[in-house]
Specification:
Length: about 600
Amino acid sequence: MPSYTAPMRDIQFVLHELLKVEDALKEIPAHAELDADTLNSVLEEGARFAAEVIQPLNQSGDEEGCTYVGDGVVHAPKGFKEAYAQYVEGGWPALSCDTEYGGQGLPHFVNNAFYEMLNSANQAWTMYPGLTHGAYEALHAHGTPQQKQLYLPKLTSGEWTGTMCLTEPHCGSDLGILKAKAEPVGDGSYLISGTKIFISSGEHDLAENIIHLVLARLPGAPEGTKGISLFIVPKFLPDASGKPGERNPVKCGSIEHKMGIHGNATCVINLDGAKGWLVGEENRGLNAMFVMMNGARLGVGMQSLGLAEVALQNSLIYAKDRVQFRAAKGPVNRDKPADPIIVHADVRRMLFTQKAYVEAGRAFSYWLALNIDKELSHPDEAVRKESADLVALLTPIVKAFVSDNTFECTNHALQCFGGHGFIKEWGMEQFVRDARINLIYEGTNAIQSLDLLARKVLADGGAKLKKFGKLIQAFVVENQGHAGMQEFLEPLMDIGDKVNKLTGEIGPKAQQNQEEVTAAAVPYLRVVGHLVYSYFWAQMARIALDNQGDDFYKAKLATARFYFAKLLPETAGYIRQARAGSEVVMGLPAELF
């Protein structure tokens, strides 16, 4: 069975040495009193919960899966409900929630770091509270005062959980063609009818109530996405005292039998005149839902990062213990018949690839979460706007680039185990299976790529991208005279120049033919993702160069060198792909395939 220990040394390195979060929080009045000791204590306790409470349920939960009992009733795997009760008792759902509704009011980046640990320990279990937090954020941003008072305290405490119901049998990401209907009753409520599929955590026995956020159409609504509204649809209708009352006709018709995340109930949800209440304005449901969707995209990044971390840990342990063949330079362990496989170059390549992607992903995702805190709470409007633009630009990358890399990393972890990796008892094949969904849901990675190129870069003439470029320029200028930094600054500047040039080439082509955007988007995201990782690896190398006497920094510096030498060069191929144009993809008529 796999093991997991939270990487507290690297988490603290990112928070306190790279991001200097104490200094950043001093500029945000709501968090100005938080210090490093407090942050570390919270995360250390979170690490204990992840490793001791939910990690032991990961493999058993995968093997047992969820059980559809009948009449809409679903049971989570053995131990999940008890673990969730401990999660609620410990106050973990409230970590970054508003104190007005019973939350602890801690920064989002703390919750982000905690969720990395939870996902390393047990992604399927973590999806139950993870989606709840997204429902909380959507209602906090767009709910009426009455809705907030009724639902947010229960979601904050974890007594109730939440879902988002978008996908229908005939439409996935193309929400413009959804068919679910909402009929006004006349008392401020609506009757919602339709079928939703692939609803994660859509039914379970962990909490006393489930709050579904459902997209549906009002009578006479415009066609397409401009005619979609958002509704609160509780599993049990709250009674006069705010407790679960009458059963609402929103039920699970079946659960999906999936490749991975077996411990999470992925449901077909049938709404048969279920009672619901409008969230936000009529026909503007996507505006409200995007709060939850964007939070979910960051959440997918953290799911992926968590899986990559635990896969790395276990493949590293195995590589140091498993003996096969002799090292190329001669025997290392002469008292054994063979050397540990970590002495072999290709095993090193796979381990280094995992380590480079994990550590850059952690730095990037924590930085992004810190910018969410600035966007929401910084007193300076200019800082809020700057942070909001950076978060908008980079959200597709944290979802797609991190999850793409993680699928590669979990496959490398399995490969390090050789034939044992293919066997269930070692746990590596589960990490591969669980990681695969992250490239699909919350908008496929191709859709994230289109969002990045079309909406976040080309739509504003590259203004948001230039803001990120200015951060890179400032870092380069600041470190030009630092001994040893040229080996990192030169490739960083080079990839920055190439991104600017590539963007400048695609823009004019797109004005003539939008298929140029769709054909270039996926390789373009890979290139920009490497620009982002290059920026963070250069920063981490800068810190490591000043602390070379410590083994932690020696490993950090070696990983930075591996990243720039072995992983960044893949951008050359992706740039050529992006430049190849749409004709090579779209020129063949469909009937000739």
